[in-house]
Amino acid sequence: MDFSIRAANMEDCKDIARMIMLQVHNKPCCDYLSDMENILVNTSHFSRFHIFDCLLSGHTKIGYALYFYSYSWLGRGIYMEDLYVMPEFRGKGIGKALMSKLGLAAGCSNLKFTVLDWNKPSVDFYVSQGCSDITANFGFHCMRCEGEALEHLAQP
Amino acid sequence: MEYKLRKAEPRDVSDILRLVKELAKYEEMEHQVKLTEKDLLEDGFGDTPFYHCIIAEIQGENSSDDPKVLGFAMYYFTYDPWIGKQLYLEDFYVMDQYRGLGIGSKILHHLSDLAMKTRCTGIMFVVAENNAPAVQFYKRHGAEDLSQEEGWRVFRFDKNSLVRMAGGAEE
Q1: Where does the UniProt annotation place the signal sequence (chain B) (predicted)?
Q2: Fewest beta carbons less than 10 Å away: which of A67, A102, A114, B1?
């Protein structure tokens, strides 16, 4: 299958938004998802996230990886926020190719991301690629402070 | 005890590295620290910072003494298309002898205020489940354990695995 991977540009936000919306049925709906394209365009400037697109035969966008640069004891790293390949194009090495592109980012020594424990196909895929489950192996838990708790914490 | 919080400056990199190593030792992972002062300087204070840092310091006992850096928080910003901008708290540490004085809470308050002002919808972080004092501290301040409540697991590729995977992708 003829696919290529390249860094996304502003014109790609429409297709990225389309692919994000394809995932909506698996997650709670947020009001602003209907404006996802505008959000991607407007926030990319200050949020400094990056996207790699996967194009089929140079035209149709069929997958993407959205990521940031991170930092830790290991030095520069990549935090992969989203990795998505449209269902009809899975099993053809596209997810691996997208992650490999991220993994080769200059000066980065590690690639980190989260995955839901019930998402067995994804968990099996990542483990097969040599990834370490640091929640299972070291007991690392993701935590978040948000909403009212964050507002309360921010009060003087 | 009088202490103050401020943004880290290039001159602070040796203290930041000292505290990073102390935190790593506390988590029994000191052999994993690869950072050098040079890395911290280039990566934190160049044109495109990879991280931001605030530090807590106290004045020395005598007015002629240098202030002592006793705590720090290292963070950066991420973006979740589902829920918006997040402040990702990578490292957060107060030296053992200065705990229990409210410094950690003050740092977290400072970060949450910053998160609100920069339109973040949350502060994210990772903590080892056997680090009971840290887990209790965060829960006391309203944090949710997403691993426990929603089943999120953290995965990581190290450099060797990344190189192996990239080699396989080119076949």
Answers
A1: none
A2: B1
Can you tell me the distance from the alpha carbon of A32 to that of A83, in angstroms, rounded to the nearest whole number?
21
Q: pTM here?
A: 0.88
Distance from CA of B59 to the nearest CA of A (A): 24
Which of A70, A94, A143 to probe by mutation at the B interface, max B CB count within 10 Å? Answer: A143
**pLDDT tens-digit readout, A48-101:** 677 777 777 677 889 999 888 899 998 999 999 999 999 999 989 999 999 888
Q: List CB contacts (< 8 A) between B81 and chain A.
A: 20, 36, 39-40, 66, 81-82
B77 touches chain A (CB under 8 A): yes
Domain that holds residue B13: 4-167
Report the complex ipTM: 0.89
Total of domains in chain A: 2
Separation of alpha carbons A127 and A76, rounded Å: 22
